[in-house]
Specification:
single chain, about 350 residues, alpha/beta, DNA Methylphosphotriester Repair Domain, Arc Repressor Mutant, subunit A, 5-stranded mixed sheet, 4-stranded mixed sheet, 14 helices, about 10% strand
Amino acid sequence: MEQAFLEGDRSFDGLFVAGVRTTGIFCRPSCPARKPKPENLEYFATPAEACARGYRACLRCHPQTSPGERPAWLQPLFQRLEAEPDTRLTATDLKRLGLEPARVRRWFQHHLGLSFAEYARHQRLGRALTTLQQGGTLDAAALGHGFESHSGFRDAFSRHFGTPPGAARTSACLKAEVIASPLGPLLIAASDLGICLLEFSDPERVTLTLKRLRQRVGLPWVPGEHPHLNQLKNELAAYFAGQLQIFTVPLHAPGTAFQERVWAGLRQIPFGATASYAELAHRLGCPNGQRAVGLANGANRIAIVIPCHRVVNSGGALGGYGGGLWRKLRLLELERPGRDYGTHRVPRTESLPHEPVKSL
């Protein structure tokens, strides 16, 4: 914990908080404030434990907010966006809501990897696409969704979707969200065919991850809701609460023929069980293909649902995991409580909370 806190390791946010004895303040591991001396720190599994010991929450990193969750101070902005989704909000509008524009910009950049203006524009482009697909006119798509001119709308639309508005009536796109979970923020995306992305993603990698997904799936993305995303969020909530073992949400996971065989094999590993790379290769009929299986396992873009965390080394060690070994361990412990995973330990926390999945 000490190393994670002193290095500002964001992947440990939500796993513990650190109290600073000299100031009486507690912070999350990624807090940007100057780090104190190690001897002045004590660690707690939850913010509630830190508060019970008399510590106050840091005003810079807001440790009482779950990673990825909308903070209370930003709620007026999201309420305004929901009430007037096609209104372009200026810095003056933000100040009227009691918000400092620079603080809003930093939050969106830190948590979503893009500015508030980009986020709002992507949302308006997504609604404009829906209008066109439902038979609406170009006027309704452009002027009805906050764009000031047809030319500006055409330029923005063509840049984002790779096609002019007039040719987009039969186009499809991905809908993407960042949601909070007990193991940190999750980036999820879906097409009309199913879920195509579920990853633990650092905020600065959101845009890059979605860019790579677009190259793989061949579809542009916009922020927004989708029935498949809603089903995934409900199933994740049940999974983290210990009430679901098998996901039924449709998946859209194109890959090479071998990758798709490996991913199908991963879904056949039962809840609460593990398999080694060698065992999985043998099941797939390629007993000498452990390395190829490992590479395909690492290329999985739909964590948890395609359970690559259930693959371990032949000797029983955890092996690698793109989301971090501590997350892999927590997932395995959730699925099989009480099993000993040897020296691969992480700081003990309270049980995973109920209702863990929240949309940004």
